[in-house]
Amino acid sequence: MNILIAGGLGAIGAPLGAELRQRGHTVWVCDLPHALGPNYLRCDVADFRQIQRVMDTVEPEFVYHLAAEFGRVNGEDHYEKVWRTNAIGTKNLLRFQEQRKFRMCFSSSSEVYGDWDDSMSEDVPERHPIRQLNDYAISKWANEMQIVNSAARFGTETVRVRLFNTYGPGEHYSEYRSVICQFVYRALHDLPYTVYLDHHRTSSYISDTVRTLANIADPDRFQPGEVFNIAGSEYHDIKTVSDVILAQLGKDDRLVEYERQEAHNTRDKKGDLRKAQRELGHQTRVKLAEGIPLTIAWQKETYGIG
Q1: H/E element holding 63?
Q2: Is 226:273 a contact under the CB 8 Å cutoff?
Q3: Number of helical (H) and strand (E) elements in the chain, helices listed first
Q4: Which of 18, 34, 203, 268 could disulfide-pair with 165, CB 3.0 to 4.6 Å?
Q5: Per-residue pLDDT of the chain (306 residues; tens, 9 = 90+)
Q6: Within its chain, how far is the Cα of 60 from the centroid?
Q7: How many CB atoms lie within 10 A of CB 189?
């Protein structure tokens, strides 16, 4: 199959491309940086002319839409970029999907569950009023509604996936990245960080996320209009993550500040995995006890720390 990954140089997009190629697909990538590589096209999805050039070149049968400004804090600090990329970029891709009829998998976020404090099954936002807690979350929910409306009006075929705290090798540090990425980097470099004691997550190791995403391109698994949670099976607090990292590095917590809660952030993200397990073959193969050391090893090599 001829597959395009929009945002294909990212922490999830790059290993997804490798997985899809291993499965025999022809994979094209578009992303923002100037880069070398097979079948790579530089493109800002929020620029209609640029994405048109990509579509004319690739003529995809399937698109993974991973191109987005990512992260809750990023969405507050750079809200104009978040809305331009996430809302206009998604609309651009939908316009081409309406014309060319390729299938699509859209990467949404567990952030759309907002202030929901129970198990997060896929139908929660349809059954209950949800208050998203930040612009990034709101933008992802707006994207989902764009996709639903396009399907109703034009018959487009898209699967939405809500990713829960994916982490692991390939995720380069910034202050906007995942909590595990940030804690590892800061602990390695003896920098302070804050642990919010009342917050819980179901973190997913990158290879587990990628394998399930790749399954969606299988015609026997693709279900237009469906939405799936992709998360880990361990429901853990944030302090557990910090404790494992510090223990792996042989360091104490003298640089860690402990607070109860973080404002404008979902307190508990307990992903209901049953649907993805049943219909996409999703499995948690890499638990925190294995995934965190692998992430530490990758960061040590990447940042030259012995």
Answers
A1: strand 62-65
A2: no
A3: 12, 13
A4: 203
A5: 999 999 999 999 999 999 999 999 999 999 999 998 889 999 999 999 999 999 999 999 999 999 999 888 887 888 999 999 999 999 999 999 999 999 999 999 999 999 888 999 999 999 998 989 899 999 999 999 999 999 999 999 999 999 999 999 999 999 999 999 999 999 999 999 999 999 999 999 999 999 999 999 999 999 999 999 999 999 999 999 999 999 999 999 999 999 999 887 888 999 999 999 999 999 999 999 999 999 999 999 999 997
A6: 22
A7: 11
Fold observed for domain 2-163+206-231+270-285 = Rossmann fold (3.40.50)
Distance CA 266, CA 120 (A): 12
Task: Say how far apart CA 99 and CA 158 lie, in whole Å.
Answer: 14
Report the candidate in 120, 134, 239 with the shortest Cα–Cα distance to residue 176: 134
Tokens of 138: 């709101």
pTM: 0.96
Per-domain residue ranges of the chain: 2-163+206-231+270-285
Consecutive H or E run containing 11: none
Side chain identity at residue 61, one-letter code: E
Give, in order, the Cα–Cα distances in Å from 11 to each of 8, 70, 282.
8, 11, 19
